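ugh finaly. both done.
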Amino acid sequence: MTGDDAYGQEPEFRDARAAAGFHYVLEVPGQLTVWPLEPTWESRPYGGFGRPPQPQPVKAERQEVRERQAALPETAWQEITMGEGAQGPRT
């Protein structure tokens, strides 16, 4: 399955495709914020009033897609062809 950034920006759409067993390639804008697959969680200290704070992912682990891409070695990438399109192969 392939799609443009309108689909690539929707985590619910991506998660539903993965849960259904689909393999997919979706365009995402470089400034899209992403997290590690298993982020580190932290909780603020409880001050004793109101609801206790909920755990939150460590903000320093958040990156833009372009930052994550730049940090990956060239060997992390592979070219694949998803099928024929109206203007030739979708590679």
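ok and the 2nd:
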Amino acid sequence: MAEELWCAVDEYIAQTLIKTDAVLDTALEKSHAAGLPAINVSPSHGKLLHILVRLVNARTILEIGTLGGYSTIWMARALPPGGRLISLECDPKHVELARTNIARAGLERVVDIRLGIALETLTAIAAENIGPFDLIFIDADKVSTPEYFKWALKLSRVGSLIVVDNVVRKGEVANARTNDPAVQGMRRFIELAAAEPRVTATALQTVGCKGYDGISIALVTS
């Protein structure tokens, strides 16, 4: 009953505050048809990312984990003229579909999707002196999230926002005895954020059509 209620509220929010969007709807449909896992952000979370981009007046965004490009479109649409979004994805099938979805949205000149293992691609980005990024969205393999966070700090500036998805893991993040590598990764990330003097961070629990999870937001302060 709880999950049914969560989904009903999600649908109400989407229908009332977000409205139908053919480009975004098609991106989800194409992702489903291609067999991509249904782990994209929800419409309400997509719009939250969009608002956060606008709040920090971001001109440069780094996304770690592209999937089908759904969250990418939400964020890229919030960029001003001349803005740029670099998205990292390790699966060639996902990259191909995401590029198609991005092109359909008319954002191919704004979004640069890079294929490769993120920790290797991040090294290349640092070597190219790309950045700093105004907003960094981490939504990739959870085991590596602590390392992604360390890279986000290197590629950010004072005032940058670092957003990390899926941090609560159905409440298991509070379980210190967990053997789940994904949960362990999120616990390490939260502990890193807590001990990091250059950021002020929080995390929120969320429920909805994606189940019970959460999101973390860290502001780079020094």
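summary for the 2nd one i guess: Strands lie at 60-64, 84-89, 111-115, 135-138, 161-165, 199-208, 211-220.
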